[in-house]
Amino acid sequence: MIKPLSLGLINLDMAKSLLFFKAWFIASIIAFVLASLMHTQIVLIGLVNIEVNIGVGSWVSTSIQDIWGLLPTYAPVIALALLIAMLVVVVFVRFITLPRLLAFIGGATAMLTVLLSMQPIMHVTLIAGAREPIGVALQCLSGAIGGLVFAKIYYSNED
Questions:
Q1: Which residues cross the membrane (predicted)?
Q2: Angle made by CA atoms 66, 67, 71, in degrees to the nearest 5
Q3: Which pLDDT does position 127 carry in this prediction?
Q4: Alpha-carbon distance 110 to 103, whole Å?
């Protein structure tokens, strides 16, 4: 039998590690899809506000095209941010036994960090839907929901 590897605050065994990566991967996908959809809706609502007529078909196709278009750039950034955040959550849960709350806060914080990092690094906010406070809030909500998904999967046997 292989003994778990202990790194101080984190005990690693193969089954728990695989569960972590499964939970993180699913959470990352959900957070990305939600963030992409929220971005698109904010942009489309902005167009409607300046009296651009957008049909339902265009609304749906634009949403799908944005998911596909943001996949190679925004998805990996969200995945990396959530990886770091959920690793921190796993450590913090050892001291504060509120995994869902910590994962919710961790996911939102990960998204906020991503958005706030873009401006000084690239001198532009690449996610047009996050240029206003409501857009930032919706992006953070997407990350928070991803965090909840992570906690639901990773901590499911502890409920």
A1: 21-47, 67-94, 101-122, 134-155
A2: 110
A3: 76
A4: 10
